Amino acid sequence: MANDAERFDWIRPILRVKAAPPPDADTDLDAAERLLGSPLPAGYRAFARRFGLGGRLHTLPELFRLLPADTPEPHWADSVIDATRFWRSPDAAEDVLPNDFLCQAIIFGIDEGARTFAFHTGEVTGPAAAEYRVYQIPRGCGPEPICESFEDWLHWVHRGYDPATWGGTDEDDDGDDSPPRPPSHTMPYERF
């Protein structure tokens, strides 16, 4: 694994005028850990320090901002803190998601509502530097483990969401059944 200075060189930030500069990441990350009651994964912290949180990878999925925004009408998906509080509340889908899973989940992203992404703090995969197993939670279904760390999840997103990898197997295409192509060398990340 590359060191923190190089590990995300393959991610290409897309800078927009409206995007706020990354905040004092360490201060915000430490505050979020206190609110969540768990350390955040080392890879996630490194990504936040370098790029900031609150943005979109490829065209999806979205990474939530870390801390709640000061808005008149907060929404459960405004931040990691808001999303995690919601999913840990009785309003969450307890009939599909076991309470012991929800109590140890940190919700960090979403795919337009089709899938929610979470770290499971009870499943440490990198004890030397805190890393947690990453789950996807498809709408209306139980949690499914997909990666061993945040960095692995970024590679999973890059392989699955990069339009360059899509083969010609779509129902609406012209009959081209070519196999999927390898992902491009970089993955865009656009902060909002």
From TrEMBL:
Ranges where the record places region Disordered: 166-192
InterPro entries per the UniProt record, alphabetical: Knr4/Smi1-like_dom, Knr4/Smi1-like_sf
Domain of life: Bacteria
Pfam annotation, one family: SMI1_KNR4
Domain Knr4/Smi1-like positions: 23-156
UniProt-recorded name of the protein: SMI1/KNR4 family protein
Record organism: Gemmata algarum
UniProt lineage: Bacteria, Pseudomonadati, Planctomycetota, Planctomycetia, Gemmatales
